[in-house]
Amino acid sequence: MVRRHLTPQDWSTVALRAMARGGVAAVSVNALAGELGTTRGSFYWHFKDRDALLTAALEIWEQDDTAALISELSDIADPRERLAALFTTALGQENINGLEPAIVAHADHPAVAPVLRRVTERRIAYLTDLYTELGLPPATARRQAVTAYAAFLGWLELRRSACDVVPEVADSGTVAAVAVEHLITELARSATHEAGQE
């Protein structure tokens, strides 16, 4: 049987899944090699050490869940529609369940901190631009962006840790869909309302 040649992407993907399950500590070279059905030698062919893998994995998360999404949304001309599409995608099913809360929980880890900071800054800047396009002055748009981003992070944490207590944030079902739509409507409405008062 011919063994498939593993790529840095393969290692990074399995590292992100491990992180979602158990945080940074779960990203163990031995455990990941076992999961991939390979040896530690394959790992060291691609990465200098575990922190290099963590950085590479987090940069893939940054690209897929931030840069690519922003690029996809650029075709939507209307800022309110773009905002709704952003929230619908971001609050929908995660690519890897539990990954965002796991990353945020390790914000002080040296491999996590710089990537998480870049992602947070870019996401808040993007939201600020959207709210500005909706008519809010820059300072108000920034405050609204921070509020929206906090709601997003809270939603993901509730879905990970308390969906039995808060079924509205469960991964699937009518209740979750209705709750997501309500949250999107409120976040967009508050921006429209504030813009009308300026």
The helix content is over 70%
What ranges have pLDDT less than 50 throughout 5 or more consecutive residues? Answer: none
Number of discrete helical segments = 9
Shape: elongated
CATH class: Mainly Alpha
> Can you tell me the CATH superfamily?
Tetracycline Repressor, domain 2
**Please, how many domains?**
1
Q: What is the correct CATH architecture?
A: Orthogonal Bundle
State which percent range the strand residues make up: under 5%
- CATH topology, by name, is Tetracycline Repressor, domain 2
Averaged pLDDT, please?
A: 87
Largest sheet: none
Q: N-to-C terminal Cα separation, in Å? A: 69 Å
Count of β-strands: 0
- Radius of gyration, taken over Cα atoms and rounded to an integer in Å: 19 Å
Order of helices and strands: HHHHHHHHH
The computed structural class is: mainly alpha
